[in-house]
Amino acid sequence: MRSISSAVAKHLENLSTKDGVISALAIDQRGSLKKMLADAANKPADETTIVDFKKAVSSELTPYASSILTDPEYGLPATKVRDKNCGLLLSYEKTGYDTTEPGRMPDLIANQSGLRIKNEGGDAIKFLLYYDPDEGQEINDKKKAFVERVGAEAKANELPFFLELLTYDSKIEDAKSAEFAKVKANKVLQAMKEFSAPQYDVTVLKVEIPFNLKFVEGFNGNNEVVYTQEQAKDLLKQQSDITDLPFIFLSAGVTSEEFIAEIKMAEEAGADFNGVLCGRATWKPAIKPFAGESEAAGRKWLSTKGKENIENLNQALKGAKSWRDKLTVQ
User: Fold this and answer.
1) Which residues, in sequence order, are CB contacts of 287 under 8 Å at separation 6+?
2) Which of 209, 244, 310, 317 has the highest count of CB atoms within 10 angstroms of its CB?
3) How far apart are alpha carbons 24 and 169 in whole angstroms?
């Protein structure tokens, strides 16, 4: 088992349920959220709209979540209206990635630091990394060094380090294609294996489901079947076995119903996952009434259907395990 300090353990307690399961709500989207709000309103989205939407999600849904993830750029006002029992994760990365050079290189928010995140009341540092295990060694070595630096900074400030891994293939443009679906599992597993190594000081991995559900038998619609359901469950078990760290699933833009189906498959596979950090699957449909009609209409959706989504997800998390099973306090 990995060991953590009592200070880090206390922050993890703030972020999880009494059973040690992380049932977190993600609202750290920036560029993509701005575009969605603009499309719904049929006009450019200003900063006030983004801030107000995050505040609405936070105030309406955090009573049903163990913690919330947001960004320091637009999300700090939302942290002030979250439920008093809801922990806080803050993003450290800039939105998107550097498009001026190959490799989807990350960068940090210029006016943030681990210390500032701690002083803003954050219970954890979250850092997102785009990673292709099959990309060139020079690119991936830079990314590994970057994660080592963030991990060391989190450790110095006695904060948990949540590393979010999003895989891609530098030679496949369409991440939603059958071509990528066939290689995704190996990339997810190899990324998890790499960043479970002790030198990164990762506390919790935030990871993708290791397959695209839209290419799994029974969920594939008109798409080809890349995996049977049994093969998909086997991948979930392999994913669980490849790391000794606590890990939680991200929703990756699927619907609430699809994400719950994936979570249930993980339980049936016997995967030792430790919760979720769920974003758009919970609140995305609220964007249309919020931006297209009124804030009141958006809040009405969140307080009814959004609440239902998160409660259904919490019900599905009964198969999740406690992070305390994988970490010991020094």
Assistant:
1) 33, 36, 37, 40, 53, 298
2) 209
3) 28
290, 53 Cβ separation under 8 angstroms: yes
Amino acid at 119: N
pLDDT tens track, the chain, 330 positions: 899 999 999 999 999 999 999 999 999 999 999 999 999 999 998 999 999 999 999 999 999 999 999 999 999 999 999 999 999 999 999 999 988 889 999 999 999 999 999 999 999 999 999 999 999 999 999 999 999 999 999 999 999 999 999 999 999 999 999 999 999 999 999 999 999 999 999 999 999 999 999 999 999 999 999 999 999 999 999 999 999 999 999 999 899 999 999 999 999 999 999 999 999 999 999 999 999 999 999 999 999 999 999 999 999 999 999 999 999 998
Whole-angstrom distance, CA of residue 172 vs CA of residue 180: 7
Q: Token pair for residue 249?
A: 């699933």
26: alpha, beta or left? (left if phi > 0; alpha if psi -120 to 50):
beta
Count of CA atoms in the C-beta half-sphere (13 A) of 319? 17
Q: Residue 92 in contact with residue 115, Cβ under 8 Å?
A: no
Contact between residue 60 and residue 86 where contact means Cβ atoms under 8 Å apart: no
Q: Which residues touch 152 (CB under 8 Å, ≥6 apart)?
A: 201
Give yes or no for a contact between 317 and 271, defined as CB atoms under 8 angstroms apart: no
What DSSP letter does each residue of 210-278 carry, written as one string? SS-GGGBTTT-TTS--SB-HHHHHHHHHHHHHT-SS-EEEE-TT--HHHHHHHHHHHHHHT----EEEE
SS3 at position 79: helix
